[in-house]
Amino acid sequence: MIKTGTFTGKAVIVSAPSGAGKTTLVKKLLATSLPIEFSISACSRNPRKNEVDGIDYYFLNSNIFKSNIKKNMFIEWEEVYKENFYGTLKTEIDRIWNLSKHVVFDVDVLGAISLKKYFGSNAISIFIQPPSIKHLSERLKKRNTESEKSLNIRIGKSKKEMNYITKFDKVIVNDNLDIATNELINLVTNFLSK
Predict the structure, then answer these.
(1) Inter-residue contact 97 to 119 (CB < 8 Å)
(2) What CATH number corresponds to the domain at position 174?
(3) Are 113 and 107 a contacting pair, CB within 8 Å?
(4) Range of the domain at 179
(5) What is the per-residue DSSP string for 74-103?
(6) Would you place residue 60 in the very low, low, confident or very high pLDDT band (cuts 50, 70, 90)?
(7) Starting at the edge strand that comes first in sequence, how are the strands of the sheet with 170-173 ordered?
(8) Is 26 inside a domain boundary?
(9) β-strands 170-173, 123-129: how paired?
(10) Is 108 inside a domain boundary?
(11) What one-character DSSP code corresponds to residue 20?
(12) Which is it for the CA torsion 114, 18, 36, 57, positive or negative?
């Protein structure tokens, strides 16, 4: 476990299959007055429209990402898609805990499981469940950011990720955004107050 100065923060790990609404929910959580800060993940993919390096992700090319893996600079990392890496830099946790804040993660399912193992009881892992795979597929199509082939890969991956739901501390079904937001805020508030 990383220990920075006198403050050891807690970890809030939010995960879901792609398109389930986890990023929207995390943004609503971060808009509260809770003493939390978003952990910016590193990734090896190109930025999407409106994504900013150092705000949405740390965009690293594949070679730099692999070099950082060899240097043991990540708490966790995954090759989510072929040659498409995502991970949590150790320096990012230092940055947040130096602010005396708790860290919030918005990560893929396998990354979430790795983070929960790393932080143990100092973390809560929350799975955002879509109402159905059909609903999830419709959300992904509305994004209009994927080719038909990559869309099918994402949907296939989402089906597999649903099998990991029992590995999480809590599950929130994102059928109604307002209800899911309130559930998330209440869960995190209770966890941080312990």
Answers:
(1) no
(2) 3.40.50.300
(3) no
(4) 11-193
(5) EEEEEEEETTEEEEEEHHHHHHHHHTT-EE
(6) very high
(7) 36-38, 102-107, 11-15, 123-129, 170-173
(8) yes
(9) parallel
(10) yes
(11) S
(12) positive
What's the mean per-residue pLDDT of the chain?
88
Q: Is the pLDDT of residue 22 over 60?
A: yes
Residue 178 has pLDDT above 70, yes or no: yes
b (16+ CB within 10 A) / e for 111-129: bbbbbbebbeeebbbbbbb
Q: Does residue 137 or residue 180 have the better pLDDT?
A: 180
At residue 156's C-alpha, the angle toward residues 150 and 161, to 5°, is: 120
DSSP string covering 155-188: HHHHHHHGGGGGGSSEEEE-SSHHHHHHHHHHHH
What's the pLDDT at 140?
A: 65
Q: At what angle do helices 148-161 and 133-143 cross, to 10 degrees?
A: 140
Integer Cα distance of 52 and 49 in angstroms? 9
The tokens of 11 are what? 């970890």
pLDDT grade for 162, boundaries at 50, 70 and 90: confident
